[in-house]
Amino acid sequence: MIAIDLLEEYGGIKKNYKSGELIFEENSLALQYFQIISGEVKMNNYNEEGKEFIQGIFYENQCFGEPPLFIEQVYPANAVAVTNTELIVITKNQLLDLLQNHSDISLKFIKNLSQRLYYKSVMAAEISSQDPEHRILRLIDYSIKQLNFKKETAGFHIHFTRQQIADLTGLRVETVIRAIKSLEKKGDLKIINRKVYR
């Protein structure tokens, strides 16, 4: 998203998190900008029964948790390192200075936030659908486009686990497994060595 050397020029500090480590907690005040150098981060919530709902999964060169920075709100979800992860972090004031001095990056930010808002709108409509297969295909197709999944010989490798697909779509993991098998039979997906391809 933003060049690492530019973030460092504005005071960015590199931080490492181990798999499973909490980066920030839901309802804490948003005071910093986080961008992934390497690794994977998920933003999640838990319902009253303790079921996890994943708000989003973020990868190398992506930022996460920045919308509340601009409106002085608390984080709407937790951020957790899925794998060992290296981040670069700057304060809100440092980020605002950077954006004021670099209009091209400000425009990228607006585009990025707009894409996320669009995704949330699309997925909110999909989650209200009763058809699990349709929900899963929409999630996969959107993720291929927005997360730049690489095309391999078998097709686009979908890096989500069955559990992550369940948590992103509000489905049970058993439902996801059945739906993926059904989509494979219909030719919409391929399963090779337990990996899902589109």
UniProtKB/TrEMBL annotation:
Q: Which residues form a coiled coil?
A: none
What PROSITE patterns does this protein's entry cite?
CNMP_BINDING_3, HTH_CRP_2
**InterPro entries tied to this protein:** cNMP-bd_dom, cNMP-bd_dom_sf, Env_Response_Regulators, HTH_CRP, RmlC-like_jellyroll, WH_DNA-bd_sf
Keywords from the named record: DNA-binding, Transcription, Transcription regulation
Domain of life of the organism in this record? Bacteria
All residue ranges annotated as the HTH crp-type domain in the record: 130-198
Where does the record place the Cyclic nucleotide-binding domain? 15-116
What protein is this chain from? Cyclic nucleotide-binding protein
Q: What is the source species?
A: Flavobacterium pokkalii
Species classification:
Bacteria, Pseudomonadati, Bacteroidota, Flavobacteriia, Flavobacteriales
